[in-house]
Every structure is written in C-alpha cells, then in structure tokens.
Design goal:
With 377 residues, this protein is α/β, with parallel strands linked by helices. It has helices at 32-40, 58-72, 91-103, 118-130, 144-150, 188-205, 207-221, 225-245, 260-269, 276-293, 299-312, 324-331, 367-376, and strands spanning 24-28, 49-55, 76-82, 110-116, 137-141, 155-158, 167-170, 175-179, 343-344, 347-349, 352-353, 363-364. Helix content is 45%, strand content 14%. Bound molecules: nicotinamide-adenine-dinucleotide (NAD) and glycine. Nicotinamide-adenine-dinucleotide binds at residues 55, 57-58, 61, 84-86, 89, 116-120, 122, 142-143, 145-146, 149-150, 153, 155, 164-165, 182, 185-186, 190, 193, 197, 276.
C-alpha cells in the first residue's frame, strides 16, 4: 500500500459582517400604547414571547401594567422582578434572572423588555446579550438618568465588588422608549441625580444647552413638559452622535466619560451611599478642577459648572467619609487606564473637550496632581 503523506492545512473562515443595528428612540408621554402598536407593526417579528425585566419599585408602577397589556394583546409575557438598587446590578442577579427565565421555559425565541432606570436597562440588556447567545431587547426607560444616558447607546453591564460596570457587552436595543410621564413618580433625589448626566452632556458638547439648563433648571425640576422634552431630545442627540461614530469606545466615545473617572471611583468607595448621578456630579467638579490646574479650563468655567450642579441639588464636594487614598487606588480600576496610568477626559471650555491627538480624547495625568485636586474639593 502506498504511504500517505499528511500536510497541515490552513483554513480560512471568512466572516466579514455588515450589521445594521439602527434603532429609534421615541420620546413622549405615556408610551405603552405606542409600544404595543410597534409590536403589532412587527418590531420584534416573529417573536411572541416577551420577558419583562424590572425592579421591585418599578414593577407595580409600570412593569406589571405593561406585562398585562402584552398578555391582553396575545403575547406570552412574564414578569421577572429583582430588588431595586445599584447593589443588585451583579453577576449573581443576572444568573438568578436567567435561571428564572429558563425555568419558565424561555429559550432563544424571546425578546426582553427592560422597564426601569439605568440599573434595569444595564442588567436586562446584558441578560439579553448572552441569553441563548443573544436575543433582542427593548428599553422602556422610567428615570431621567436612563432617558439622558443609560438606555441609549448599547452599553450593558453589571458591577463587581471591585468597581462598577466592569463586566458587560455592547448590545443595541431594538427600540428605546423615553416615557417622560414616568418621571412624575420618581423621588426628587433620583430626578436630581439624572440631571448630572445631562449637565455632563452640555459640558462635553454644547455650551448653548448648558445655558438652557441654567435658564430652565427650575422649570425642568418642576417637570414642565416643553423644557423636559427639549432637554431629553438634546441629551439623546449629543449621545447618539458620539455613539454613531464610535460605538465600541475606541476614541471619541471616551468623551462621554467626562466626570466618570473620579465619579465611578467615588460611587464604589461610597458603598453606593451616593447615587450614580451624585457621584458623577462630584466627578465633574473634580475633573473640571483638574482641567483648570493643567491650564486648560478657566476658573470662571469651573465656578459656572459647580454653581449649576449645586443649584440642581447635586453634591459638588467629596464627602468626609470617603477615604482619599482609597479613592486614588480605585481610580486604577477605570477602563481608560493604559500602561498603569489613569487617563482623564479634560475640558477647555464648557461645551468642549480636548482632543489630544487623532482619535485620542483622554490623557494620563500625574497621580500627585490628581491627589492635590481630590484634597482641594
Ligand atoms: P435605577 O435604575 O436604580 O433607578 C433609580 C431608582 O428609582 C431605583 O430605586 C428605581 O427602583 C427607582 N425608579 C425607577 N423609575 C422610577 C419611577 N418612574 N418612579 C419611581 N421610582 C422609580 O438607577 P438610574 O439612576 O436610573 O441609573 C443608574 C444606573 O445607570 C447605574 O447603574 C449606571 O451605571 C447606569 N448607567 C449606564 C449607562 C450606559 O450607557 N449603559 C450610562 C449612564 C448610567
Ligand atoms: N455613558 C457613557 C457611554 O455610554 O459611553
């Protein structure tokens, strides 16, 4: 028999993809009928099973009514409810929701409807990204913070004991509903917390929007329709303009992190005594001081930012119970750390962040400089 010769082969698996993840953001008042109409019109066709994921506070207000309405319309829908609060945005809670869905018979042919604030949309979006290797999801945002930021852009995640949002994936929703009527049941502190991400957007991209916030702050906090609608629209525009250019945060999207390098660290070190927006507000002030110390941002602009945040009812100083050294250490859990150095997004004006190089929007800052700023505020 002739001797066989074996040759190692190199196989080429060609999997170039063109993906269309486009979606609509609907801003309005009482959008449950619109959601039902969109489903009827084929938003998630051919899926008929919908897992409504919400938290214990939002469930009786909006989760249950939406779930009931879906059942009336002929969908197979079930509620999956977890305890409210940042401390529940964990891998363990994700596993519990997944197990509950599996036990209830959910498989790949389902859609997830996230009803709630940023904790719900982040967690439910992450469940959707991995359940059955990925199922579609819809965000129905019920907080100002989720409307301003969390429900748009496709970042989903959970927190770990080390820091927030360390484990997650990019998974874009099929549609986002921003129901401004839901803000009426929000506790004042939560409403105010949501304003921090709004002020962040103005600081990054739009001085006129900042002026609008200065002028209409009291009207917004009183939930007057027109200013709230305008603010929500402008928030979305600023955010999706960035996301459309840099979905995976290879450069420009880092600008949306303004205030978050310090903010996320404070949020974790506070043990979640501070709400996300409150921590971001302190982070915005700290990083504005940093920009000033580095000769980029005039002091008057730092004052103007601090004044608006403070008028909103947001904290602008690091609380005494935060250990400054622990805070410095926590900065190194930031995703912008490169080669062991913490990098910051910096402003040169209200409405403008510094571009350090082509597609580079964050820069390393000496730890000593950061320490001085954190001692100052
Ligand atoms: P949240 O979801 O915890 O909501 C705040 C509180 O308000 C909760 O207790 C909730 O039960 C309650 N609530 C929600 N809607 C309500 C309503 N209409 N009426 C009464 N109570 C209501 O938190 P949040 O402030 O909405 O969002 C913060 C989270 O968002 C953080 O985890 C943060 O990391 C995340 N986030 C994500 C992104 C992103 O791009 N994915 C961006 C910004 C923030
Ligand atoms: N909230 C920051 C981002 O979406 O990138």
């Amino acid at each position: 028999m002739a001797e066989r010769t074996f040759k190692m082969a190199t196989l080429n698996v060609e999997l170039r993809k063109i993906v269309d993840d486009s979606y609509e953001i609907e801003i309005g008042h009482g959008l449950s009928q619109q959601l039902l109409h969109d489903l009827e019109a084929g938003l998630i066709d051919p899926v008929k099973r919908i897992a409504v994921i919400t938290d214990e506070t939002v469930s009786p207000l909006y989760g249950e009514p939406l779930c009931d309405a879906l059942v009336v319309e002929g969908y197979q829908a079930d509620l999956f409810v977890f305890p409210a609060g940042e401390q529940n945005k964990t891998r363990e809670m994700k596993a519990r929701i997944e197990d509950a869905m599996l036990t209830a018979g959910y498989r790949r042919d389902c859609c997830i409807l996230a009803v709630g604030g940023g904790v719900v949309t982040d967690l439910a979006g992450f469940v959707a990204g991995t359940f059955g290797r990925g199922v579609p999801f819809i965000n129905y945002a019920t907080t100002l913070l989720a409307a301003a930021d969390a429900s748009v852009g496709g970042k989903t995640a959970v927190d770990t004991p080390l820091a927030t949002n360390l484990i997650g994936l990019f998974h874009q929703p099929k549609k986002v509903y921003l129901d401004l009527d839901t803000w009426r049941t929000l506790p004042k502190r939560e409403l105010v917390s949501g304003m921090a991400e709004t002020i962040k957007h103005a600081c990054i991209a739009d001085e006129e929007f900042f002026e609008f916030l200065e002028e209409y702050l009291e009207h917004i906090l009183a939930l007057e329709e027109a200013p709230c609608e305008f603010m929500t629209e402008r928030n979305c525009e600023i955010k999706y303009q960035v996301v459309m250019q840099d979905e995976r945060e290879s450069g420009l999207r880092e600008t949306l992190n303004l205030g978050h390098t310090v903010g996320r660290a404070i949020e974790t070190v506070s043990g979640y005594r501070l709400l996300h927006g409150e921590a971001v507000a302190i982070g915005l002030v700290a990083e504005a001081h940093l920009s000033h110390r580095l000769g980029l941002l005039p002091e008057a602009e730092v004052k103007r930012m601090t004044t608006l945040l403070s008028r909103t009812g947001l904290p602008t100083q690091i609380p005494d119970y935060i250990d400054r050294e622990e805070l410095i250490k926590k900065l190194y859990t930031d995703k912008k750390v490169r080669n062991g150095r913490v990098r910051f997004v910096l402003q040169d004006a209200i409405g403008s962040v510094v571009r350090f190089d082509e597609n580079v929007y964050a820069t390393p800052v000496e730890e000593e400089t950061v320490r001085k700023v954190l001692e100052e505020i």
